[in-house]
What we know:
CATH superfamily of the largest domain: Gcn5-related N-acetyltransferase (GNAT)
Radius of gyration: 21 Å
CATH architecture of the largest domain: 3-Layer(aba) Sandwich
Number of strands: 12
CATH class of the largest domain: Alpha Beta
Distance between the termini: 34 Å
Largest sheet: 8 strands, mixed
Strand order of the largest sheet: 1-2-3-4-5-12-6-11
Shape: elongated
Low-confidence stretches: 1-7
Mean pLDDT: 89
Number of helices: 9
Strand content: 25-35%
Amino acid sequence: MFGTEFLEPLIYKIADDSDLKILRSELNPEGWQRLAVWLELSCTKPSWIILNLARGALIEAFVLLTHPGYGIPLECVRLFREPTGGSIDSRLFQFGINRAKICGARELFYSTPEDCSEKELIRELGFSLWREVYCYKSTGRVTAAVADYRWVEAEMFPQSEVISLIERTSESSDDSQTKYYHHALGSYADAKLTLETMQLASHDRRWWHVALSAGGQQVGLVLPVLEYGELKIGFIGVVPDFRSRGIASFLLKQLLPLVKNSGYPAICADVDQRNRPMRRALVKSGFNLEHRKLEWRLTL
Length: 300
């Protein structure tokens, strides 16, 4: 099917432009649709796709992903010929990990369902369990109202002020990822990296907003982005002294009509299991829990 007769039962190869038509015909429809969006948005490229072939027929593809403009892989996913998927192929995984190293990646993330039965195999590949994530999706039924607050577009403020606001809203966060990078980088460097990463992801600047108190004090912000083609809350935070006042719900209530007018009927949010306040805020804001997943991290 790939124009070559293979004597080995399994072959692993890096895709090239000529393989894309074959991938379109052999991947299941959902898999191809996801891959096509990633290619269109420059989240991946053929040289970041590793094919698993059995006598020339596609079994699965291992795809490295990044934010457009970032330049190095951040995450890996598997796409299958059949919708039901399959068990982990350690050799394919290792091939993909080696490819990520060649591309300059320093760490790599991988997600599985929370009931994944192959945790030991994933650990043997060098991954450690990073965190459990709750995945929410908006329903458009935000009813929360907050008096005496308003919002303005984030671009009204210098980048240094936005970084400072991210730093302040991240203070005492229950998010395990935030805590890790605060410890590893420092709170300011983590905030700066957060904003730079959000800026590299596709987004509309009209979606990024800062919440202001009646006196004009910056008390929260929300930064939605397109993450591999899916609209997500890239970052949302509230200054500690103003938490539990419905400001996160206020931001989300203002945001949803904007993204809907941009052609996105819903927005998703991934929240650390430990971040109970944000989980409560999302439910209060009309978001439904869709599923849970485990995130794994590999240091390269």
